[in-house]
Amino acid sequence: QVQVVESGGGLVQAGGSLKLSCSVSVNIASLTLVGWHRQAPGKDSELVASFTSSGSVGYPDSVKGRFTISSDTAKNMVYLQMNSLKPEDTAVYYCAVQSAATRWTWAWGLGTQVTVSS
Predict the structure, then answer these.
(1) What is the distance between the alpha carbons of residues 107 and 95, in angstroms, rounded to a whole number?
(2) What is the pLDDT of residues 7-42, one digit of tens each?
(3) N or C, which terminus of the chain has less Cβ within 10 Å?
(4) Quick one: DSSP state of residue 111?
(5) Phi, psi of 15, rounded to the nearest 5 degrees
(6) Contact 6, 112 (CB under 8 A)
(7) Closest to 50 measured CA to CA, from 11, 63, 116, 109
(8) What is the DSSP string of 87-103?
(9) Cβ contacts of residue 3 below 8 Å, gap of 6+?
(10) What pLDDT is stored for residue 1 in this prediction?
(11) What is the three-class DSSP state of 29?
(12) Strand partners, 82
């Protein structure tokens, strides 16, 4: 079973930065899809950053140019660097991965709260 654990959330002022970390229990190189999602109260879940095993990276317009997803295969870690944060970025952020081990469905972490004050 693939386990995912997020960390690094917190309270930050608008315009500030925060880096989220995601520990994955399997080799990052075995993953076919890695994503950071967020869920704000009363809003639909949003995929804010992702990368595939083929190297494709994607961001929605809402975070493009401000968020960067990266990984450290030696440590089996995935990161989300968030810059120029806005109050509307406030949400619970979830790391999720897909692989053969998850039967190509998302394996989710429990999430980490990010709150951006104005």
Answers:
(1) 8
(2) 999 999 999 999 999 999 999 999 999 999 999 999
(3) N
(4) -
(5) 90, -10
(6) yes
(7) 63
(8) GGG-EEEEEEEEEGGGT
(9) 24, 25, 107
(10) 87
(11) helix
(12) 18, 67
